[in-house]
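Morning F.,

Quick status update on the modeling queue. The single chain you submitted on Monday has been processed. Sequence for confirmation:
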Amino acid sequence: MGLRVGILSPYLWSRPSPVNRQVWQLATRLADRGHTVTVVAPGGDRRARAESRRRVEAVLTGERETLFDPGESSPRLFLVGPTYTTRVRPSLTLVSAPAGVLADIHLLLEREDFDLVHLHEPLLPGLGWTSLRLAPCPLVATFHADPDRARPFWATQAALRRLFDSLDAVLASAPSVREGVAATFAGSFRVVPPGVDTARLAAAAAARGAAGDGLVTALFVGGSERRDGLGTLLRALRRLDPAATPLRLEVAGDARLEARFARLVPAAWEGRVRFLGLLDEAARAERLGRSDVACLPAHGPDGDAVTLLEAMAAGCAVVASRLPLHADFVRDGEDGLLVPPRSARALAAALARLAGDAAARRRLGEAAARRAAACDWETVVDRHEEVYREVASRRRAPLPRRRRQQRELFADFHVHSHHSPDCAMAPADILARAREVGLDVVAVTDHNTVAGGLEARELADRYGVRVIVGEEVKTSEGEVIGLFLEEDIPPGMSFAETIAAIRAQGGIVYVPHPFDRLRTTPSLAVLRACVSDIDVVEVFNSRLAFPSFNAPAERFAQRYRIPGAAGSDAHVLPGIGTALCGIGEFTDARDFVAALAESRIVRRPRSRLYLQSLKLLQTAVGATGRGGAGQGGG
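Structure tokens below.
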């Protein structure tokens, strides 16, 4: 079945870039395979932005439920307002987005019910960070360039680094990019190279040599930035004698390229250097097919893997700077020639060699085409689909709607008794307090024992409160609660082993306060590895020192469609019922999960300082009393 995929680019859509070209080609090919794809990017086209804004306003005013109708053709394009640059320090400029742009993207993510969102260059602020924080679905990210320049910034931003952990899959466009990302972030990264239309480029190569004037055509494709290396290439021409070097140079790029560099063309080469302007996809393929040599003299740090691979697929003899990204695809002397960055002398020598040796051009071009075949779009889209389906499979299908319940039960699913070492409440007192505050259901979840829950269940009928027997188990990787248990589960096992033990009793796996960084909680990687076995996530815990820790728990539950619940984590009587769920009637453990999927969270916050002080006082008094009794009994 087709997936609903959002693909987000941080680069201005009206300004051509290798990343935007890759995004649109990927989106088009995914749509051809039956997926519904929406491309999101900042845009300079006022008409397209006005159309996107009209859709947003229609949703906000209630005219429509979603921004795009189910029958609209795919891929869809959602252009938001332009971004702007922010200088963080003299050596680092980041891209940011206005609040209105971020709000529009938030609405899109909320209403379109994507199976996943694919972020390109996710470390750029603005669009990518919004998705990392707010997307209610799994996330895939692709790094096209080594984030080396931003590494000092990310190394000092712990809060932002945690956003990276929310990615379900991380792709890198080349091995060197993967190594650069791994130097900044821990995790597992897969290499998926840029895609190229090898059949189209091979067909275009049939026109090679059609000029018949004896000149070898070298093509430069780049932007107006100095780092793309056109200046170095023009300086290399000064070292060549046009009478002895049968070479012409064609330069493709936007109008700024000619305005900035035309004056640097050596006088001796006038008439042999031609600026072509900006080329669309078809014209680019046609020019590459006609060219004998492709020049990529960028001095970095990133290079252009897309143009490099297109030139290789077209059978051009490639001359490129020896950058890590170029060296990932070109083996010097086998698939092309690599020269030191910024070296006009070495570049001139390579061009002179290829201009005078047709056999070498043919050998290098044929080897390059064979190597680029592994990056054919069909293969690359296959790789993306494989990742997409793996990631989307973690998100469970919505639970079926239950018959509307006549009565709503109020429940607190996380309460401790004196069977926990840090609590002094007796089960009878818990039930009396639960009845007093209007609770119908309470789960007693003592640390590493079900004794409190079993004792409370024996007393339940006296108080008219239903009891769920639970245990908060201390695993080797953080805490997890089992509900509907009958026997103790020993602490100290791994998170996965503890989940298996809960399920062996027919219990429910309930993850408490999963993102409370002041407690021992399982890492996001552990949670993600076990996500298919998690039944319930505690999305509101009233005892957290920082209530903001509840927000990522709520997002995690939304992202994977896991029912959310609330628990007071009460250790003192006034804490009971400070967080609870309004839930329909349920009959057993499985029905309980289905009922939770349609429940509501009720917050009754009380001063945490008061509750924590009361807990410390009561446990201290209880410990003194137990100590005195023990001495007397002895």
